[in-house]
Each structure stands twice: as C-alpha cells, then as structure tokens.
C-alpha cells in the first residue's frame, strides 16, 4: 500500500525546524527510514567536488564513498538530474553494490539554482519496491527538505 505521502510531508515539515543542512539531512534520512516500509538504506550523497558524490548523513550499513558521476544509479541521477527508479539493481550493469541485499533503488537529485547539491538515495531489499506513486511521493518529501533547508 502506498504510504500517505501528504501526511508524511506535513510531518517532515514540522520536524525540520532549523535551516541547517546537516541537521535537516540527518533528520530527513532518519525520518524516511522510520516511516517508509521495506528500506535497508536511506541517505544523502553530496556534491562537494566536481563530478563526485561524497557520502553524507545516512541510516543503514556503512556505504560506498566516493561515487563518481559516471558510476552507478546515484551517478546517473547526478549526471542526468532526473530521478532514477530501479526495480532490480542486479539488472543494472554499473550498479555499485554497497549491500548485496539491496534490490530496488530510488535516487532523487537535489538541484539548487541550477547547481547539483546532491542526491537522496533510498534502497530496499524488495524487488520492485518503489512504484511511480512512491517516486512522486518521495520527490514531494525532497521538495519539503529543500524548502526547509539552506542549501548553500
Ligand atoms: N547503489 C548505489 C550506491 C549507493 S548505495 O546503494 C548506498 C549506486 O549504484 O549508485
């Protein structure tokens, strides 16, 4: 069943009561891990150098770092600036396997004034975990994070 994303968006908005990117990104990935079923990883990768994603706040097992823009699902989201929704990462040739249990992945780019700030990456051990409705709902949650946060 699709979660109640409008409710989650209101709850996330209430949770993010600072403008600080570090606090808000830590709170956001903890909130998503808590509220969305069947996730095994939720976190941010930040662009702090050209064409390279650096591991940011996350929930889950220790993860891959750094990720170049030309690698994996996160790299594709950074390069194309479009959400990547993958039903089975084992079918993606250049997927970067941080955890062999991960099957489905959703990566949402975060673009501020035409600059890629980073991406939000969600992983699930369930094949096909993320529907189009989940994509839209999670993009809406990322929009709340962006509205509430000073992303310099
Ligand atoms: N699987 C990702 C790497 C990041 S981890 O899943 C946390 C990818 O292919 O970009």
Overall tally of domains: 1
Can you count the beta strands?
A: 6
In terms of per-residue confidence, which ranges show pLDDT below 50 for 5 or more consecutive residues? none
> Helix tally?
4
Question: CATH superfamily, please?
Answer: GAF domain
For the record, the CATH architecture stands as 2-Layer Sandwich
> Rg from C-alpha positions?
14 Å
Nearest-integer average pLDDT:
97
Helix and strand composition category: alpha+beta
**Cα-to-Cα separation, first versus last residue:** 36 Å
Strand content: 25-35%
GO molecular function: kinase activity; L-methionine-(R)-S-oxide reductase activity
Family: Belongs to the free Met sulfoxide reductase family.
Domain GAF: 32-135
GO cellular component, one term: cytosol
TL;DR of this structure?
This protein is of the alpha+beta class and 152 residues long. Helices cover 34% and strands 28% of the residues. The chain has a single domain, classed as Beta-Lactamase (2-Layer Sandwich), CATH 3.30.450.
């Amino acid at each position: 069943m699709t979660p109640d994303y409008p409710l989650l968006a209101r709850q996330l908005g209430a949770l993010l009561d600072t403008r600080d990117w570090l606090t808000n990104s830590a709170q956001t990935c903890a909130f998503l891990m808590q509220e969305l079923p069947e996730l095994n990883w939720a976190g941010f990768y930040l662009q702090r150098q050209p064409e390279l994603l650096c591991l940011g706040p996350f929930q889950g097992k220790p993860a891959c770092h750094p990720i170049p823009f030309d690698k994996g699902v996160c790299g594709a989201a950074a390069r194309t600036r479009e959400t990547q929704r993958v039903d089975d990462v084992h079918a993606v040739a250049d997927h970067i396997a941080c955890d062999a249990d991960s099957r489905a992945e959703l990566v949402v780019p975060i673009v501020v004034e035409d600059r890629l700030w980073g991406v939000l990456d969600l992983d699930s051990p369930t094949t096909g975990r993320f529907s189009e409705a989940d994509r839209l709902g999670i993009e809406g949650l990322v929009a709340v994070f962006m509205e509430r946060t000073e992303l310099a």
